Amino acid sequence: MGIFQEYLEHDSNVFEDKKMLQISYVPTNGDIERIRGKGLEYEFNTPLPYRDAEINNIANALGPAFRGDGPDNILLFGLPGTGKTATIRHLGREIEVASRESEYDVNYLMLNCATVNTEYGVLSNIGNSFSENSIPFTGWPMQKVYETTVELLDEKPQTTILVLDEIDKLLYKDVEKGNSILYQIMEMNTAFEKDSHISLIGISNDTGITSVFDPRVESRFGGEKITFKNYDANQLRGILGSRTPLAFKDGTLEESVVPLCSALATQRGGDARYALNLLRVSGELVEREGTRRVTDKHVRSANEKINRDVIKDAIRGLPIQTGYALVSVYDTLKSGTTDTGKAYHTYESLVEKKACNQLTQRRFTDLVNKDLKELGIVNTRPISKGRYGRTSIISIDNETSEIVKKMREEIESR
Ligand SMILES: Nc1ncnc2c1ncn2[C@@H]1O[C@H](COP(=O)(O)OP(=O)(O)OP(=O)(O)O)[C@@H](O)[C@H]1O
Ligand SMILES: [Mg+2]
After folding, report:
1. Of 46, 60, 79, 177, which sits most exposed with the smallest number of CB within 10 A?
2. Are 282 and 300 part of one and the same domain?
3. Domain range holding 382?
4. Are 151 and 135 in contact (CB under 8 A)?
5. Which H/E stretch holds residue 228?
6. Ligand 1 centre distance from Cα of residue 105 (Å)
7. By alpha-carbon position, which residue is closest to atom 16 of ligand 1?
8. Are residues 74 and 153 in the same domain?
9. What's the whole-number average pLDDT of the chain?
10. Phi, psi of 316 (to 5 degrees)
11. d(Cα 321, Cα 142) in Å, to the nearest integer?
């Protein structure tokens, strides 16, 4: 019998349709019908509860596109997991439907600037979305890429709505280049010869990006800024409640599970992504146990597991020297003492052993107090040593300590 036989023969004990809990999945009107079809009540009139106002505001701003007018550029802000990407993807589907009925073609196109963030990448992706493989991945002079893209966008009178998700990644990678890319796209409107338009929707969880906009870019984003508020515990309960009837088999969820996931995600800043992940991982734990009822105990274990995974990923992503700084702090703590000065001594012997270059004490202290602290790997508390100046008391949570212990070889072998 093959090792996957069990998976081939049996459905999950727990999940009915696990895709409903995937982060990339945006629920549809069809899902609402499926829920109602099961004889259950669905209390909202949209697949994205609590985002009616935002959806309407954006739709009103984009509406003129269907009459052949170029809509304003829009910026969307909000903390992680507040539904920005989901809202826009939902609207993208609506745009595609409306465009089929409209006299004017309205195209919807989304790029994620975490992955596409060079001038060549952004422009060629826009062009290729109109005509596949018309611009090679690399090799053309920029001017040719630009001109081809403009031609494709202006092949007939049409409006293109370009969503730049995580637009902060584009700007912070290189503020000048980032601004220049945005400006070039906005200025395509003056290069079109037919009645074509392009407008931008920028999405970011950092409102600070407006301060790095070039004035020319800032003024073109002037019109609409829409902020997505964090969800409260009640709203998260509603959101999870709208997913569970299709995601889980009947009778598998204890009643307190959704409220607990919502409460824990509220502590995380009202992050719907976190709430959905908790629910999914809780179900997976039950699946692995071979049982069929998700309880609070599973949610709590899922919470710990997710936190551990976050810390592990953060540690895995550390640059080499920051990793050494972490190991040094860990070793120093093991011998019972806790300040940056002492940790630096440990660090000195470590880099000597490794025969790699040595950071100054000042830089080392920065790595610990800023980088490691911001990632939630260490805790630090500054204290005054009287006339000897200031130092920081460092500590590492027990749980993180266990992780560092297990990962130390991996950290040191880099
Ligand atoms: N109102 C809602 N109704 C149903 N599902 C939602 C809602 N808001 C968010 N979600 C779901 O929560 C998850 C996270 O949402 P989304 O990816 O849109 O967050 P975001 O605001 O783009 O976060 P980030 O800034 O981290 O990119 C997605 O799976 C999304 O479908
Ligand atoms: Mg997003």
Report:
1. 60
2. yes
3. 318-412
4. no
5. strand 224-228
6. 28
7. 83
8. yes
9. 93
10. -60, -35
11. 37
Question: For residue 201, what is the DSSP state?
Answer: E
Please tell me whether residues 220 and 248 are part of one structural domain.
Answer: no
Average pLDDT of 9-26? 90
Report CA(112)–ligand 1 centroid distance (Å).
15
Token representation of residue 413? 């072998």
Check if the beta carbon of residue 226 is closer than 8 Å to that of residue 84.
no
Mind listing the pLDDT tens digit for each residue in 215-272?
A: 999 999 877 899 999 999 999 999 999 999 999 999 999 999 999 999 999 999 999 9
What are the residues facing 204 on neighbouring strands? 77
Q: What is the mean pLDDT of residues 349-356?
A: 90
- With contact defined as beta carbons under 8 Å apart, do 264 and 278 qualify? yes
Pocket test for ligand 1, best of 82, 164, 165, 268 (most atoms within 8 A of CB): 82
Which tokens hold the place of 241?
């409640």
Ligand 2 centroid to residue 86 C-alpha, Å:
7
Please tell me what DSSP assigns to residue 339: B
Does residue 310 fall inside a structural domain?
Answer: yes
What pLDDT, on the 0 to 100 scale, is given for residue 234?
Answer: 97
What does the angle CA 235 – CA 111 – CA 161 come to, to the nearest 5 degrees? 85
Is the C-beta atom of 48 inside 6 A of ligand 1?
Answer: yes
Look at the block and give the residue holding tokens 């895995």.
Answer: 316
| Whole-prediction pTM | 0.86
Nearest C-alpha neighbor of 250 from the set 397, 38, 27 = 38
Write the residue with the smallest CA distance to atom 25 of ligand 1: 80
Do 308 and 324 share a structural domain? no
For residue 6, the model assigns a pLDDT of: 66
- Looking up residue 201, the CATH number of its domain turns out to be 3.40.50.300
Burial class for 279, CB neighbours closer than 10 Å (0-12, 13-18, 19+)? buried
**Angle formed at CA 356 by CA 352 and CA 358, multiple of 5 degrees:** 75
Q: Residue 29 domain-assigned?
A: no
Same domain for 287 and 366, yes or no, is: no
User: Does the C-beta of 245 come closer than 6 Å to ligand 1?
Assistant: no
Count of residues in the chain: 414
